[in-house]
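Model it.
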Amino acid sequence: MYVTSLLGLFIVLASSGVARLPRLQDRPLIAAVEDVLASVTDPYCFLVFITDGSTWPIALYKGIHHYHAPWGVGAFEVVVDGQNANVTQAQLSWVVDEARRLRQVSWCVTVVVVSDDPAFLVTFAELSVKGRLLVWSSRLLIVTRPFLLELQGLHKLLSLNNAMLLIMDESSTSR
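Modeled.
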């Protein structure tokens, strides 16, 4: 009974109490995520979105409404704007722990991380390896902007897991 009720759960962590509407510049990102998920994701996987506040997680989920996720969706946001790095790390650690709990009660998990902040991505990589968020059946999609030299901290995470790095540039256009 516990597993059944948890799998249909929709989680939102918003560090800021201000509701935001999806931005126009999110459309190319949402279209890219939708295309990747449609081609590489098992429809029976639990879907987890993690963002740094640069993109609204609900906008991602609503933007990919064609994606069928019968096992549920988790949407997490850790806002990093103007916060102490220790606070951000503590919040991200909590999010990784919660996502791991969802993974443990799911057949498989697809994790989508969206961030323009290299420090956020490197911290996520360290915490997800340390916290065993990703296992052999998990899939990871990291969506970011081009700053390849600053992404060296992601090498271990990307090389040891079923992972994909999607780099969006400013010339990306929506469908």
